[in-house]
Amino acid sequence: MSQTHGSAAQTVNSNLVADNAIEIKNGSAGALNLTGTLALSGNTVTVDGTGNTTLSGVVSGTGSLVKNDSGTVTLSGANTYTGGTAINSGTLQLGASNVLADTGSVSIGATGTLNLNGFSEKVGTLTAAGGASLDFGSPTAGNTFVFGSYTARPVVCSLSITGSKELTPWPQR
After folding, report:
1. Domain residue spans in the chain?
2. Omega before 154 cis (within 30°)?
3. Burial class (CB in 10 A: 0-12, 13-18, 19+), 8
4. Strands, DSSP E only, in the chain?
């Protein structure tokens, strides 16, 4: 699915099933809002483009979600997918708390940002490349980010953290 619609916002209310790997691309100045469900069905769904895209329906299944390009993707559904989430570039922003799988993996590339946007999240594994960013959102928000394990790629790298929050690995040691 490739969306080019000028500067007007577009809303797609259809449910999507990824029978194969698919790409959702918003190359427009206007927002693309996908309000239907997205079933990964064991496949990879890549969301990219320079425009902003919101997935407000439930993302489900065992596949993975990949974020490429400079735009922002917002996840706000009560998602149940159990595959990994890769933020290779651009921003993956939370639109609600607990939209990623508690046991899932999240990897943030050198030009990628995970923006908690003031919401709380828990993931199983966090992997970050040098230059990756983690943004808690509003410094007055009471949000938390909890992860089971952390791996830096390369081993010595810088993870830029915005906001005055504490990272908490779980389970507590």
Report:
1. 2-167
2. yes
3. exposed
4. 2-3, 10-12, 16-17, 22-26, 32-34, 38-39, 44-48, 53-55, 59-60, 64-67, 72-75, 85-94, 105-115, 121-129, 133-135, 145-153, 160-162, 167-169
Amino acid (one-letter) located at 81? Y
Question: Could you tell me the sign of the dihedral formed by the alpha carbons of 153, 155, 161, 164, in that order?
Answer: positive
pTM of this structure: 0.87
40-65 confidence digits (pLDDT tens): 999 999 999 999 999 999 999 999 99
Look at residues 55, 46, 5, 12 and name the one whose alpha carbon lies nearest to residue 27. 5
Q: Which residues pair with 82 in a beta bridge?
A: none
Q: Which residues contact 68 (CB under 8 A, 6 or more apart)?
A: 46, 47, 48, 88, 89, 90
> Which residue do the tokens 């993870």 mark?
159
CA dihedral 92, 97, 100, 105 (to 10 degrees): 80
